[in-house]
Structures are given as structure tokens and as C-alpha cells.
Design goal:
Number of strands of chain B: 2
Strand order of the largest sheet of chain B: 1-2
Oligomer: heterodimer
Shape of chain B: globular
Helix content of chain A: over 70%
Number of helices of chain B: 5
Distance between the termini of chain A: 20 Å
Largest sheet of chain A: none
Number of helices of chain A: 4
Radius of gyration of chain A: 17 Å
Distance between the termini of chain B: 19 Å
Number of strands of chain A: 0
Structural class of chain B: mainly alpha
Helix content of chain B: 40-55%
Structural class of chain A: mainly alpha
Largest interface: A-B, 13 and 18 residues
Largest sheet of chain B: 2 strands, antiparallel
Chain lengths: 143, 71
């Protein structure tokens, strides 16, 4: 498996575990969206971000040590082409979801409900981007 | 994703070049070992520039390395 495919897997797993955990936690402690203390949201979000950084840092270091010269190689035309494809599709997902958040905005009376919706949009778009990159390495890409 | 209607002789040419490794070819061409592997497996179509560089690495014309299989 290519080094950059492993990196994409790492980012995908880190994103799903950390922010999936965040939204599960918010769903459990905050059944009525946006009613918790700001500090609680910040603490949960901070914890999720720390988990993500821990997963990425540990995984990145392990890959660097395991893959040696492969990890030192600069991205080539295939890597760049696949990254562009992932970013392009992720962008349209983000655009669509942010439009949905914008439409929802006037119907919401708490800032955190909107903030969490926007955060979910960013995370879903990032997950789609990573998934497209992984799929392009796995199944091939002829762009 | 369906493979493109292009086949290539890179594996054979590497063998004929004294079992040149994918990494060696990648170094000559300026791509990673994994990209050479993906091209050989038909999982990636290289740019025209890289296709010419691969052909030049074997001292062959482009059409002896890559073949159009479509109609």
C-alpha cells in the first residue's frame, strides 16, 4: 500500500473516531441541541481534537519509521492528481452542506446548534475527501 | 473503475533491462515505485510526459511501450 494511501486511511480513521466520538458525546449529554454550557462544548471539542492529534501524530510517526524512503518521497503526479480529485469532490460536499446550514440558520435559536451543524459539514466533507483518496488508490484513477 | 483501453509492456521491458526494479524505473522517470506499480497494473494512466520518460528509460519509441486497445 502506498505511503500516501496509508496517510489518507490515517486521516480518515482519525476523523471518524475523534469527531464521531464528539457527536456521539454531544448527542448523549445534549438531547436538546444547543442547550449545554459553552464550556461543555469547548471541553468536548477540545478532547476530540486532542484525540485526533494523538491518532495522527502516532500514526504519522509509525508510518515514517516503517516506510523509510517511501515516506520521504515527494508526492508525484499520481498523488497530486488523486489529491485534487479528493479535494474537488470534498469541496462540493462542503458547499452543499454549508448551504443546508445556511438555510437552517434562521430556524435555530442557539448558536451551538448552528456551530455543530457547520462542524459536521466540515467533518463530513473531509471524510468524503479522504474516502475518495483511499478509493482512488485502491481501485485506480485515470484522471 | 474500469481500466482504460491502454495496455503497456513495462513489466516485460523491465525484465529485459536486467530485471530493473520498479523503484529504479521510478527514480529515472521521476515518480514513486507505487506509481510504476499502478501503471503496470493498469490502475493509473500516466501523463504524456511521464509516458515519454518511461519510453526513453527503455530507449524505445512510445508505441512499443504503450498500446491502444480500444476501437
Amino acid at each position: 500500500m502506498a505511503y500516501r494511501e496509508k496517510l489518507a486511511w490515517l486521516e480518515l480513521i482519525g476523523m471518524v473516531i475523534a469527531y464521531g466520538g464528539y457527536f456521539i458525546a454531544v448527542g448523549i449529554v445534549d438531547p436538546a441541541p444547543g442547550r449545554l454550557e459553552t464550556l461543555t462544548y469547548v471541553a468536548l471539542f477540545g478532547a476530540a481534537t486532542m484525540v485526533r492529534l494523538l491518532i495522527l501524530g502516532t500514526g504519522w510517526l509509525t508510518l515514517k519509521l516503517q516506510m523509510g524512503s517511501d515516506a520521504r518521497a515527494k508526492p508525484d503526479e499520481r498523488d497530486r492528481s488523486i489529491a485534487r480529485r479528493g479535494a474537488s469532490i470534498g469541496y462540493y460536499v462542503l458547499l452543499g452542506l454549508m448551504l443546508w446550514v445556511g438555510v437552517m440558520l434562521p430556524l435555530t435559536d442557539t448558536g451551538w446548534a448552528v456551530a455543530n451543524s457547520a462542524l459536521a459539514a466540515i467533518i463530513i466533507a473531509e471524510i468524503v475527501r479522504d474516502a475518495v483518496i483511499v478509493a482512488s488508490y485502491r481501485r485506480g484513477w485515470h484522471g | 473503475m474500469a481500466n482504460p483501453p491502454i495496455s503497456n509492456q513495462i513489466r516485460t521491458l523491465r525484465f529485459l533491462a536486467g530485471e530493473m526494479t520498479q523503484a529504479d524505473l521510478g527514480d529515472r522517470v521521476g515518480v514513486t515505485r507505487q506509481t510504476i506499480a499502478a501503471i503496470e497494473q493498469g490502475k493509473y494512466s500516466p501523463t504524456l510526459e511521464t509516458a515519454f520518460r518511461i519510453a526513453r528509460a527503455f530507449d524505445k519509441p512510445l508505441e512499443e511501450v504503450f498500446n491502444w486497445e480500444g476501437e
